[in-house]
Design goal:
It is a single chain. A hairpin with a 7-residue loop joins strand 2 and strand 3. Strands 1-2-3-5-4 form a 5-stranded antiparallel β-sheet, with helices on one face. The protein is globular and about 35 Å long. It is built from 2 helices and 5 strands; from the N terminus they run αβββαββ. The protein has one domain: HIT family, subunit A (2-Layer Sandwich). The longest helix has 17 residues. Helix content is 20%, strand content 22%.
């Protein structure tokens, strides 16, 4: 996990456009946005995938969702937003560090693709 780009962002070894931080999480703008608002919300604790969550992580996962709701308000996503959590490479996860995508600012269509 030492090559995890998100961990390097948490450790400030790589710069990011941080929009939120607390003792358990960090949120920053995606460098390849798929919507006008595209923020990644990550735990500071390294959890490789959603499949790696344990009972001990349930409060942290809830916290990440509360951060997403708070950021949606702060970022003006009053018409709605989408949260995406990809699990493993075949589902589109490219960084081995659990993260939520907060997307908004445009109409979201279904199915996503």
């Amino acid at each position: 996990m030492t090559d995890n780009i998100f961990l390097k962002i948490v450790e400030r070894k790589i710069k990011a456009d941080v929009v939120y931080e607390d003792e358990r999480s960090l949120a920053f703008r995606d460098i390849n946005p798929q919507a006008p608002v595209h923020v990644l919300i990550i735990p500071k604790k390294v959890i490789p995938t959603h499949a790696d969550l344990t009972e001990a992580d349930k409060e942290l996962l809830g916290h990440l969702h509360l951060v997403a709701a708070k950021l949606a308000v702060q970022l003006g996503l009053t018409d709605g937003y989408r949260l995406v959590l990809n699990c493993k490479e075949s589902a589109g996860q490219t960084v081995p560090h659990l993260h939520l995508h907060l997307l908004g600012g445009r109409a979201m269509h279904w199915p996503p693709g």
